[in-house]
Amino acid sequence: MSLLQISDPSKTNDELKKFVVGIDLGTTNSLVATYYEDCDIFDDRLKVYKDNSSGLIPSVVSIDQSGNIMVGVEAVNNLDKTNTTYISSIKRIMGLSYQDMKSIEFINDLKIINGKNNLPYIDVYNNRYSAVEISSKILSHLKKIAESQENKSLDGAVITVPAYFNDVQRQATKNAAKLSGINVLRLLNEPTAAALAYGLESEETGSFIVYDFGGGTFDVSVLSLEKGLFKVLSTDGDTNLGGDDIDNILSYWLIDNFLFLKNYKFSKVKEIAKSLKESISSINDDECSSITIDNHDIVLPKKIFHELINPILDRTFNIVKNAIFESKLAPADIKNIILVGGSTRIKCIKELLTNKFKCNVLNDIDPDKVVAHGAAIQASLLSGNNKENILLLDVLPLSLGIETYGGLAEKIITRNTPIPIKLRKTFTTFKDGQSKLLINVVQGERELVEDCNSLGEFILKDIPSMVAGGPRIDVDFQIDADGILSVSATETTTGNSSFIEIKPSYGLTEADITRMINESNNSAEVDVQLRKLNESIVEGKRVIYALEQALKSDGKELLSKDEFNIITDKLQSLKLSITSEDSVLIEKNINELEKESEFYVERRMNNSIKSFIAGKGIDDIL
Amino acid sequence: MDILKKNFFELFNIDIAVDINKSELDEKVKALQIKFHPDKFASGSDVEKRLALQLSSHINDGYKILSDIVLRIEYILKINNFVKDESKTINDASFLQEQIEYNELEESLKEHYDDDLVRNHLNKIKLLLKNSIEDIKLSFKSKDYETMWQHLSKLRFYIKNINNLIKMRKS
After folding, report:
1. Which residue from A246, A502, A519, A596 has the least number of CB within 10 angstroms?
2. B138 falls within a domain
3. pLDDT tens for residues A210-257?
4. Edge-to-edge strands of the sheet including A408-413?
5. pLDDT tens digit string along A178-202?
6. B2 part of contact set with chain A, CB < 8 Å
7. CA–CA distance from B155 to each of B62, B87, B98 (Å)?
């Protein structure tokens, strides 16, 4: 039985309010949070959902011999259990090929095998799991926690990714979300999310650096914050540099200096390293951090700790310098550095940054929560729950190129270009009657294709038979606001939309994902039907509401009488079908209405931009 | 959308000119993005989302072109339907001489770096660059696109040289 909803009459369309969350899918820990834009008490606006009493949910999955899967706090409790495999830091291998993996430090006790299409799989008692699947287990867990605490089903989520993630890594994250049944409103770059949280809290303007040092990734973004607009000027980073590396270095040092640890699982030594690291910031420079393990005293002098981590910190500082250079700002223009990520809890980072870059270092918002905080705000903005006029403009983190003769990568969209962006390139054939063309799309800054990351091969088929150089094939490379590429092509002499086949260089194909979703969909058929019906009713109501508002404001102006009638007829049919409890019918009517009103939407958009150009200044819309 | 067929100067409602007011352009682009970015249609219909993506990409593309002097001049030539085969070189003996001299300079600097020499040349080229922009403006005024195109080739050459010399100074 559901409770009768009593809505506040001062708030219109409360029933259209959506349950949306921000998800910080971290290497070490993940968070899921929602933002109450209407809440009067500022501190209560962010609600972080807890897994057992902790909002920081370990990004850990454990799988036992009979295939039972545990996630989060429960999985961590299985660390010492026999016949159980413990998978952590999965984010580090998201979107990587088997070959890529060899070049990074992904150290644990896992058995990694090379699967279909060069994709690395984790072999757990003869079951194979891809990084996308493991990541989707974490996302499902986060979804479940939020849904069960709100007793509502989730309408959508903003999921954060490192700014420096490439197209394949972004796509992998989106696929993981798809697998866990989450509707992704947007992939948001982690430093941008943090800047959003800070920008709204402090209402400060000017140029900022976000220094985001997480468990497994390091990101830096330079942003300019002004009223209503958060604009990323440049971004740089290393998707394989994080607190994990500090733990690894410490673990090696521990094994070298405390020989009894040689008999321990590496993951156990790493836990010891972590707790030493966490306690070291609270002691004086000439003191030691210590811990007792199985009657052995382990001591780590703070001096040695600093010596060990210095090379890693220097790498991060060089990346910051490069990002400032790319932003075209003078170092003196930068006002503040925002600290994000658990690794910035290491105290000396703040001191070193203040000295090196001569600006204010901010860490007022909990560095573990700030990314989820920003993501939750963005989710409420995108869902329309939050009507504030704020826009985030982000950039492409890595240049996009195509392979040309001799294995060279020709850049077609350079990094730090604002997104979304579209680029058109015209190709032709070099043999008479050639019917296929292959385009290898790569991402990265290096000149040779082999040093860049291949995003996939696009095969243009059914090119009309002509002499060499005859066909003109326009290929559009569209990067959307998530930083994800899509490619389309048209042969312009005949007007044919050439058929494109996309072959990812490695990883999962669209078909793989669909199959996996079907396999995992083992919930009862009735539930699925009911959920579908609810979704289509909500969607139908949304479409009706939007269209009625539009018709009221300019329907008479922009539509002829006939056009107006056709649309209102379709609108009526949709309204009637909403009460029918038939999701197929509702969806059919939604599609028909959207198709029938497409020209009207286009006309409205055209019209609004025209009147916009004609007069109004920026003050009118803020 | 027929708005996509307008040229970028029309889209941003600024005059077609070789020189532009950068802060005015920034403001116009900002205002358009705040209104038409796909995020503003995230809970809209698929049609709206698609149109916003197109429009927003178009705005970013226009900003990129209009805020870069070389791309902007190329674009002015394009909207005036002036198309030139880029593989053809211009027929200007004194410019050819300049190119030869510059190449010799770069060669000699690679062998023996001389910071004073680089600084002198930077100043010299900056002056040439200024002059070429003035020439471009004049030819644009008289709608002499052929001459405008020729001066554009010089402008490109000067910009490239300045960047190379600055790079040398840095390393």
Report:
1. A519
2. yes
3. 999 988 889 999 999 988 899 999 999 998 899 989 999 999 999 999
4. A408-413, A400-404, A437-443, A453-461, A499-503
5. 999 899 999 999 999 999 998 877 7
6. yes
7. 21, 17, 13
Token duo for residue A165: 């993630």
Q: First and final CA of chain B: distance in angstroms?
A: 49
Phi, psi dihedral angles at A157 (to 5 degrees)? -145, 150
Using CA atoms, how far apart are residues B72 and B64, in angstroms rounded to an integer? 9
A536 close contact with B: CB closer than 8 A: no
**What six digits make up the tokens of A458?**
């696009």
Active site residue A123: no
Sheet-wide strand order for A84-87? A69-71, A61-64, A84-87
Q: Kindly list the distances between the CA atom of residue B114 and the CA atoms of B105, B125, B163, in Å, as whole numbers in the listed order.
A: 11, 17, 17
How many domains does the structure of chain A reveal? Answer: 2
Query: Which tokens go with A265?
Result: 């699982």
Interface test with A, best of B1, B2, B3 (most A CBs within 10 A): B3
Residues 6+ apart with CB under 8 A from B80: B143, B145
Same structural domain, B45 and B103: no
Query: What is the spatial distance between Cα A286 and Cα A302, in angstroms, rounded to a whole number?
Result: 7
**B47 belongs to a structural domain:** yes
Q: Could you tell me the residue range of the domain that residue A472 belongs to? A: 400-507
Rounded to two decimals, the ipTM of the complex is: 0.84
Q: Could you tell me the sign of the dihedral formed by the alpha carbons of A427, A430, A436, A439, in that order?
A: negative
Task: Judge whether A601 is closer than 8 Å to chain B, CB to CB.
Answer: yes
Q: Does B1 touch chain A (CB under 8 A)?
A: yes
Measure A155 CA to nearest chain B CA, in Å: 11
Q: How many CB atoms lie within 10 A of CB A469?
A: 12
Residue A305 to residues A20, A249, A276, A351, A550, Cα–Cα distance (Å): 42, 10, 10, 16, 63
Query: What CATH number should be reported for the domain holding residue B52?
Result: 1.10.287.110
Q: How far is B31 from chain A (nearest CA, A)?
A: 5
Q: Where are the alpha helices (H) located in chain B, listed in sequence order? A: 8-11, 22-36, 46-66, 69-79, 93-111, 115-141, 145-170
Residue A358 placed within a domain: no
